[in-house]
Design a protein that fits this description.
Elements lengths: L1 H21 L4 H13 L3 H12 L6 H8 L5 H10 L11 H5 L4 H12 L27 H12 L4 H14 L6 H8 L5 H11 L8 H8 L5 H11 L20 H9 L15 E7 L7 E3 L5 E3 H14 L6 E7 L3 E3 L5 E2 L2 H13 L8 H9 L6 E6 L11 H14 L4 E6 L9 H15 L3 E4 L1
Length: 454
């Protein structure tokens, strides 16, 4: 009996040990990383790739060996090994790493580095190696609208006139852009500096980009200096920062500078984008339909409300500690979280998320009252207004009149409302076209940005 128990325990230990190894970078991504390192001609560029990867991933000793083999000289291998400190999950298997070094001096220095190297805690759960999350953003320019804008820009002769036309149209429209639309618009410009300025103008209207999409845009430029300028803008549009090491590939001589830019990247929220205001108000609908479930591209089930909470947490944690924020939740009733906005801190973020949780999804959507409350709050630079509903509760007469009055007050204060129609999944209460039309209008009137997610 004891032998059987020992055998079972040994099997369990093996399974957990195996899972721990699987927590390192997965095979496909590692193959791409190794390929990028081997294709890079300069040691500095190879090292930049390694440093970028270790910010998001851990490695096994076997993987570290393959990385080090991509370097020609022991000094460069040692730099690469040092960059992987705290990123190797099984440093006890160090002999294979030491063996990669050619000269005795290099082997001794490698042993010194590995001697006290701690076992890295996995940065990726072994049971949740899932693809980057994506969403279906439908709040973008229609093909007809985009074609008209492209034609309008192309009809202008000078760079100044083209840029002026783009910026004017952007200010008149609350809709965002997909990456393919950004590329199409960039091709209407002839000079790199104009394209860089155009990207800067479109920045906040870019709903999000994968690392691959950023690479496609970088491919429009011929020189690293221009690519760096573009990356400085696009770094905060990333929705899959765990893949950012791929972005170094288009750079010929400036991989290290590109790496430095990417290290300060703040992922763009699918719902809230990149929050730049210094005092921000989040207005979150928690009506009954926010309990609607949907399945994301990873196969995970979640409700609309749990998705909002996850995205809000992500956005708040990216803000500087001197940024102020407050929260309004609404259904049939409207509740203000704090009398005055508070600074961003772990405790305040946790309290805000808990406040949303305790305001359980129920009732109807008093959009008019929520907007009226928001219009009366002082010292706000930007409002993020999210709902999946329609004006189903009246306030002093028709909801539409109340909405118009509240929007007028907010517009007079020059406060943009960045609205979100969150319509993933299907609820019997949904009136999706009405919700989308209203949210787009709210942002257009107040010069905000509109998002629709289905």
């Amino acid at each position: 009996m004891m032998k059987k128990i020992s055998a079972v325990l040994a099997a369990v230990f093996f399974v957990f040990s195996f899972c721990a190894l699987l927590s390192a970078m997965d095979k496909n991504k590692f193959t791409e990383l190794s390929k990028s390192i081997n294709n890079e001609g300069f040691a500095e560029g190879k090292l930049a790739l390694v440093k970028t990867a270790v910010s998001d991933y851990t490695f096994t000793c076997d993987q570290a060996v393959e990385i080090l083999k991509g370097f020609n000289f022991d000094d460069d291998k040692l730099d690469a090994l040092k960059s992987m400190t705290n990123s190797i999950e099984d440093p006890e298997n160090k002999d294979d790493i030491v063996a990669v070094f050619k000269w005795d001096e290099g082997k001794e220095e490698a042993e010194d580095v590995m001697e006290n190297m701690p076992k890295a805690a996995p940065k990726v759960s072994p049971l949740r190696k899932l693809p980057p999350l994506t969403v279906n953003q439908t709040g973008i320019w229609s093909e007809k609208e985009l074609a008209a804008l492209v034609k309008n820009i192309e009809s202008r002769n000078s760079s100044e006139a083209k840029l002026k036309c783009l910026k004017k149209k952007l200010s008149e429209n609350a809709l965002g852009f997909s990456s393919s639309q950004v590329i199409r618009l960039l091709k209407t410009f002839h000079f790199a500096d104009d394209m860089v300025e155009a990207i800067g103008a479109m920045d906040e209207k870019i709903l999000g980009m994968t690392s691959g999409e950023v690479i496609s845009i970088l491919g429009l430029f011929h020189h690293d200096d221009d690519r760096l300028k573009v990356l400085e803008v696009l770094k905060n549009t990333l929705t899959d920062p765990e893949n950012k090491f791929f972005i170094l590939n288009p750079f010929i001589h400036e991989k290290e500078e590109a790496r430095n830019i990417l290290e300060s990247a703040k992922p763009r929220s699918f719902i809230f984008g990149t929050v730049k205001a210094k005092s921000v108000l989040f207005v979150i609908g928690v009506s009954g339909s926010m309990n609607t479930e949907f399945k994301n591209n990873r196969g995970e089930k979640q409700t609309r409300l749990t998705f909002v909470k996850a995205e809000l947490e992500k956005s708040l944690k990216e803000l500087d500690s001197n940024v102020l924020f407050n929260l309004v939740v609404f259904s049939s009733s409207v509740k203000l979280w704090k009398k005055d906005p508070v600074t961003v801190s772990d405790s305040n973020i946790a309290e805000a998320l808990n406040y949303i949780s305790t305001s359980s999804a129920s009732g109807l959507a008093d959009i008019a009252k929520a907007l009226e409350v928001a219009s009366g709050i002082k010292d706000v630079d930007a409002i993020y207004f999210l709902t999946d509903g329609t004006p189903t509760v009246e306030l002093k007469g028709k909801p539409q009149e109340s909405i118009e009055n509240a929007l007028k007050k907010i517009a007079e204060k020059n406060i943009p409302i960045n609205s979100v129609a969150l319509l993933s999944g299907t609820s019997k209460a949904d009136k999706k076209s009405i919700t989308k039309t209203l949210m787009e209008k709210i942002s257009r009137v107040t010069k905000g940005i509109y998002r629709a997610i289905e």
